[in-house]
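Researcher: I'd like a structural prediction for the single chain below. Treat it as a standalone chain; there are no partners to consider.
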Amino acid sequence: MKNFKKLSALVLAGAMVFSLAACGGGSNETPAPETTAPAESGAPAETTPATDMKVAMITDYGDITDQSFNQTTYEACNEFCTANSVKFTYYKPAGDSTAERVAMVDAAAAEGYNVVVMPGYAFAETIKETAEMYPDITFIALDVGEGDLGADYTVPSNVYCAVYQEELCGYMAGYAAVKLGYTHLGFLGGMAVPAVQRYGYGFVQGADAAA
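Model: Treating it as a single chain, here is the predicted structure.
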């Protein structure tokens, strides 16, 4: 439990740096082949020591050099696993679809990985299709909330969902911009998804408070 919490905290801290991205020392491991196979049973990561943990990350739209969610998640996982002598690898889906992401979960399960880290709300459907299929795997889902999974979906005990308060980051950015002397401010947020909108509201409120 202690080591699982450390991993979760480290991954969250790293991913928070790029909480508005579209999602997102390297590992010495060679990425596992992208194949599907039945899962192998493994003890839940929460109740086993770090030496029994095998951590796999599945990338979202980008790759581990995208300077966004994927890269920070990869680096955080790799840092934790290297420090704790935990086996770690990552999988990159062949395409941007739920089917391809599910295939990577199948591949990780077949290789015996019992902790799977997934950065990005696009993994919502993947979670719904695989979490109950692999109850012995702990899934860490970053930026996946009730709105992504559906209000009628009950999150299984082997899934840990982490969402962010983007408005806080926006508030600090707006406040800092004014304090640094800028007087003509604007906000460009990319897609009008809830996370971006929250950041924008925070930015305006921070700038207003500083002014």
